[in-house]
Amino acid sequence: MIPDQKVVWLVTDSSLNFTEDVNEWTGTKISFEITEKDGKTELRFSHIGLVPEIECFDACSNAWTQLIRQGLFSLIVTGKEDAIFLG
Question: Do residues 5 and 26 make contact, with C-beta atoms less than 8 angstroms apart?
């Protein structure tokens, strides 16, 4: 963690119920980076290790996209905690 700039979580255990390898996320990293760009705040999300070669890539990429673009955006704009779970 770098305060006000970056936070990264290492997935040490996972149990996906829709893939043959239920531990596909184990060892991957989930990262949020916050920077300023043109006087605005930019948030960059990455799931490091979520690559096209793994079974959940399409479903997980789509889910992350929806969660970030809709849920997190709504939470930031409205300030409502439950907004992140809308979809």
Answer: no
- Whole-angstrom Cα distance, residue 86 to residue 66? 10
Contact 74, 84 (CB under 8 A): yes
Q: Phi and psi for 4 in degrees, rounded to 5? A: 65, 10
Q: What is the pLDDT of residues 24-60, one digit of tens each?
A: 999 999 999 999 999 988 999 999 999 999 999 999 9
Alpha helices in 9-72 (DSSP H): 57-66
Look up the pTM and report it: 0.79
DSSP string, 17-38: SSSSSTTTTTT-EEEEEEEEET
Per DSSP, helices labelled H in the chain are 57-66, 73-78
CA atoms within 13 A on the CB side of 32: 11
| pLDDT score at 87 | 44
